[in-house]
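Design request, tokens follow.
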């Protein structure tokens, strides 16, 4: 894929972008699994965004049903997100992504059956960073 120094610089650039441009907190750059300390195939970032990035449609319905007054703003609790730094010129295969998902620990969330997901952070040569959710498996699409 890419040299170790290149990957570390990418991860640092994405970490700085999340911290200073998007106000994420509790950011950690991980090179080894927090579960068994085995090396990760790529450095991953874990952190807490300022608000929840995505709420599954089924969870949205449950939240609306359980909230006493839906006319008021419903409080959001941010969830820790995994981020995979990449460069636009890198060539990724399904196997490469599968290796990343296999190295991630199971999600510790209210929904234990939640599919693993990672926020793919793609850096361009001009230092622009775009973010896409990538799920390990099939996920019910969002209802508009």
């Amino acid at each position: 894929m890419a040299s170790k120094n290149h990957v570390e610089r990418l991860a640092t650039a994405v970490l700085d972008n999340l911290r200073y441009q998007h106000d994420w907190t509790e950011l950690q750059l991980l090179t080894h699994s927090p579960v068994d300390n085995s090396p990760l195939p790529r450095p991953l970032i874990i952190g807490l965004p300022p608000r929840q990035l995505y709420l599954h449609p089924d969870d949205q319905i449950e939240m609306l049903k359980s909230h006493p007054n839906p006319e008021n703003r419903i409080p959001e609790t941010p969830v820790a997100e995994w981020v995979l730094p990449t460069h636009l010129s890198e060539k990724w295969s399904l196997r490469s992504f599968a290796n990343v998902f296999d190295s991630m620990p199971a999600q510790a969330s209210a929904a234990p059956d939640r599919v693993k997901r990672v926020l793919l952070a793609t850096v361009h040569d001009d230092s622009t960073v775009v973010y896409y959710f990538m799920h390990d498996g099939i996920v019910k699409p969002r209802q508009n």
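Comment from the thread starter after seeing the answer: thanks! The chain is about 25% helix and 25% strand.
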